Amino acid sequence: MARHIYVHIPFCERKCPYCSFFSRSANEINDEVVVQCFESINLEIDLFAKSNFQDINQDAMSTIYFGGGTPSFVDAALICDTLTHIKDAFHLSNNTEITIEVNPASATFEKLSQYKKAGFNRISIGVQSLSDTTLKILGRLHDAQEATDTIENAKKAGFTNISADLIIGVPTQTLTQILKDAETLIESGVAHISMYSLSIEEGTKFFSLYKNTLEDYISQEKEREMYHELRSFLDFKGIHPYEISNCARKGYESRHNLSYWNACEYYAFGPGAHGYLQGVRFGNVDDVDEFVNTVGDMKVESISSLFRNDRSTKLGPIYVEECLSNEGKLKEYALLRLRTSEGIDADFFSKTFQTDFQTYFKNEIESNNFKGYTTYDGRSFKLTTKGLDFANQVFEDFI
Questions:
Q1: Where are the domains of the chain?
Q2: Omega of the bond prior to 69 within 30 degrees of 0, cis?
Q3: Which of 109, 115, 325, 367 can bridge 153 by disulfide, Cβ–Cβ 3.0-4.6 Å?
Q4: Domain 339-396 of CATH type 1.10.10
Q5: Element of type H or E holding 338
C-alpha cells in the first residue's frame, strides 16, 4: 500500500549548469503555461482519487514531497492549492511529513509563511554553499547572505524541521570552507544536511565544460577527503549519517527519502515525476505541453489496469518503465537498503521475501567482505567506511 506522494514542479528561474533533472526555465515559459501545468497536476491527483486506486483513503499518507525544478519559483498560491487537492484526495494525519524544496533566490518570507499556513511542516533549502565564489562557479542565483537569510526566514515563518543541501567537489573549493559552511548551518538551527558530490551529467552545461577535465580542478582523492571529513564533522556535531549522502539530528531524518531506501511504494504527480506502485516503476512524460494535453485522456477506470498483470505501457502522460519480478523486488530492496547506515537487516529480509538472506547473497557477501567494502555480523549487512567510496561497485553486484 502506497503511503507516500511525490509532486514534481518542473519550473526554474534558470537551469543550473550541473542539474540533470527535468525542468523548464523562465525564458521557456509564461504564466499561462505554469497555470495550465498546475491545473493538470491537480487533475491527475483527482483522477487517481476517483479511481480509488489501492483504496486510497484506507491509510493516512506518511509523507508528501514537492520537488523540482524549483517549487519556490512559482506563485505560492499554486503550490498551496495543489497541496489542498492532495488533502482532499488522500487521507492525511497530524503526523504526515510534508516537505517543499526551495531556493534562496526565490523563497521570500511571504512565500515561506504561505507554505507553513497551508500545511507544509518540513523545508529543504538548496543552499549548496556559503561561499560566494563556489556559488558563482555552480551558477547559483543567490549569494551566501541570501542563503542564511532564507534559513532565518523559514524559522520566523514557523518551520522547525529545516534541511539544507551542500555540494562538495566543486573546482576551487576547500575542505576548510566546507566545514565552515557546515558549522554555520548547524549553528543556524538546520537539523538535516544532504551532502552531494558534484556529478558531471551528460546533457548539462557542466558536461561540456568538465567531462574530461574535472580532476584537473579537483582530484578524486581530494573530493573523497572532503566527503569523509564532512561526514565525520557532522556526526561529531550531532548531525548523524543515516544514508550515504544524508545526515540528521535524531528524529529529523527525511521520512520521505527513507521510504525510497526502504523500497516503499509511492505516487508521483506532475511532468517528469517518477513513481512506484504494485511492483511497477512508472513515470510521467518529461514534457510540460504533452503532460497538459494528455492528462485529460486518462479514464478513471483505466488507472488501476495500468498496474495489473494486463498492464498497458502508456496511459495519458504515464508510461511504464519497469515491471519488477519477485526477484527484482528482492534485489532492489537489498541495493536500496545498502545506501543506509543501518544496512540490510537479515532477519527482516528473510521474513519479508521468504528467502534466506545469507544463502541467497552468499557470493555477494563473501566477495565484498573480502574486499573490505562491507561487513556482515549475521544480523546486518552494511557498507564499511571504505565501502562508501566503492558503493556503486557494490550496488552492481545486487542488480
A1: 4-260, 339-396
A2: yes
A3: 109
A4: yes
A5: none
